[in-house]
């Protein structure tokens, strides 16, 4: 039996640069199975499932996964299953959020009033198997210099836009020099007052939060909000915690959005632990998303009724400011859609989620 605390050690994690860690990845099913001491019988299905959406896992992130534990909540987020190639259920589509219709000009997704999403690149540090953009046409949004100017002009010409959201891929896979140039360009648009950065890098490769990046952010006139993506408390080790606390001390507002994932964080203990661990690091739980119905991810779905009951139990355990908003994103609606918690007797939930 493999001890529960037997984890991969990545000896260079503390000394390598974030760029080296970003490049130091596992990208094959056989290599991943060997690194994590997984049964050889798992490999073939994972190889087939990853043909349409490649495996990519930095070794810095692998260090937090328990070797030999096929139910590890971090492993389940990055290991391809044969279910990915099964015929999708009704309602699961390639573009679940209708982003193609909102891709007004290359690099810009404009769906909501007052804010636009700027696709800064198509690369991520890690490939999460539930990703709603696993089929997104990133090649069509790889911007030339002229297209960057056109994307920025799109924002300049619309004074109702007061917030720009950097997304991708992951915007922090760009180097500091490129980000600095982009932030300065947005700084020069008078009606933009907020810059929001959606990123998984502080969780996956915390070394990405460099002194230069902090200087670029804190020297801007814009109000900076960083929205990180963490689904389980096990993702936050000491290095991640230190990174998040550094952002807080720099005066950057840090929020977390998670996805409710079957068999990973769809239980009361996981949600309580995640909220508490985030707040220990000065991060406020923000959104808990129901799964976006993208082809290849249906096996992660938690039904809405179960999610609502879980949220009711969570409200009984945590103060309101630590309870994330349960939401679903629906194509064509002018905002995220809140999922209202039903009025249910608390006693009826005790059997499923434990006494509260």
What does this structure look like?
With 356 residues, the chain is α/β, with parallel strands linked by helices. It folds into two domains: 18-85, no CATH class; 99-353, Alpha-Beta Barrel (TIM Barrel). The protein contains 14 helices and eleven strands. It has helices at 18-23, 29-35, 43-49, 59-62, 75-78, 99-102, 145-156, 176-187, 201-204, 211-218, 238-249, 268-280, 304-317, 350-353; strands spanning 25-26, 57-58, 108-109, 115-119, 163-167, 194-199, 223-229, 253-259, 284-289, 325-328, 337-338. The strands form two sheets. Strands 3-4-5-6-7-8-9-10-11 form a nine-stranded mixed β-sheet. Strands 1-2 form a two-stranded antiparallel ribbon. β9, α13 (304-317) and β10 (325-328) form a beta-alpha-beta unit. α8 (176-187) runs parallel beside α10. The radius of gyration is 20 Å and the shape is globular. Residues 1-13 and 345-351 have low confidence and may be disordered.
The CATH topology annotation of the largest domain reads as TIM Barrel
Q: What is the count of distinct domains?
A: 2
Number of helices: 14
Strand content: 5-15%
- Detail the poorly predicted runs: 1-13, 345-351
Entry summary:
This protein is 31% helix and 13% strand. The protein has helices spanning 18-23, 29-35, 43-49, 59-62, 75-78, 99-102, 145-156, 176-187, 201-204, 211-218, 238-249, 268-280, 304-317, 350-353; strands spanning 25-26, 57-58, 108-109, 115-119, 163-167, 194-199, 223-229, 253-259, 284-289, 325-328, 337-338. The strands form 2 sheets. Strands 3-4-5-6-7-8-9-10-11 form a 9-stranded mixed beta sheet.
């Amino acid at each position: 039996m493999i001890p529960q605390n037997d984890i991969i050690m990545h000896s260079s994690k503390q000394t390598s640069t974030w760029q080296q860690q970003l490049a130091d990845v596992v990208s094959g099913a056989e290599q991943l199975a060997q690194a994590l001491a997984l049964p050889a019988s798992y490999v073939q299905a994972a190889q087939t499932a990853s043909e349409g959406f490649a495996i990519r896992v930095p070794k810095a992130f692998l260090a937090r996964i328990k070797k030999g534990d096929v139910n590890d909540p971090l492993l389940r987020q990055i290991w391809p299953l044969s279910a990915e190639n099964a015929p999708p259920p009704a309602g699961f589509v390639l573009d679940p959020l209708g982003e193609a219709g909102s891709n007004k000009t290359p690099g810009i997704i404009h769906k909501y009033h007052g804010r636009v999403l700027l696709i800064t690149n198509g690369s991520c540090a890690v490939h999460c198997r539930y990703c709603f953009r696993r089929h997104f046409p990133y090649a069509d949004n790889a911007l030339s210099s002229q297209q960057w100017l056109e994307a920025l002009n799109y924002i300049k010409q619309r004074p109702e836009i007061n917030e720009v959201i950097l997304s991708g891929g992951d915007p922090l896979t760009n180097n500091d020099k490129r980000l600095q140039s982009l932030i300065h360009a947005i700084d020069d648009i008078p009606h933009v007052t907020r810059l929001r950065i959606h990123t998984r890098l502080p969780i996956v490769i915390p070394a990405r939060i460099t002194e230069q990046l902090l200087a670029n952010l804190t020297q801007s006139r814009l109000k900076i909000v960083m929205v990180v993506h963490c689904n389980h408390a096990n993702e936050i080790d000491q290095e991640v915690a230190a990174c998040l606390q550094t952002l807080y001390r720099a005066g950057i507002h840090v929020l977390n959005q998670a996805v409710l994932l079957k068999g990973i964080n769809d239980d009361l203990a996981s949600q309580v632990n995640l909220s508490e661990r985030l707040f220990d690091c000065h991060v406020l739980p923000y959104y808990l998303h129901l799964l976006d119905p993208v082809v290849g991810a249906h096996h992660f779905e938690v039904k809405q009724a179960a999610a609502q009951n879980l949220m009711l139990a969570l409200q009984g355990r945590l103060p309101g400011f630590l309870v994330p908003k349960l939401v679903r994103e629906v194509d064509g609606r002018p905002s995220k859609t809140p999922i209202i918690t039903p009025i249910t007797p608390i006693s009826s939930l005790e059997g499923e989620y434990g006494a509260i």
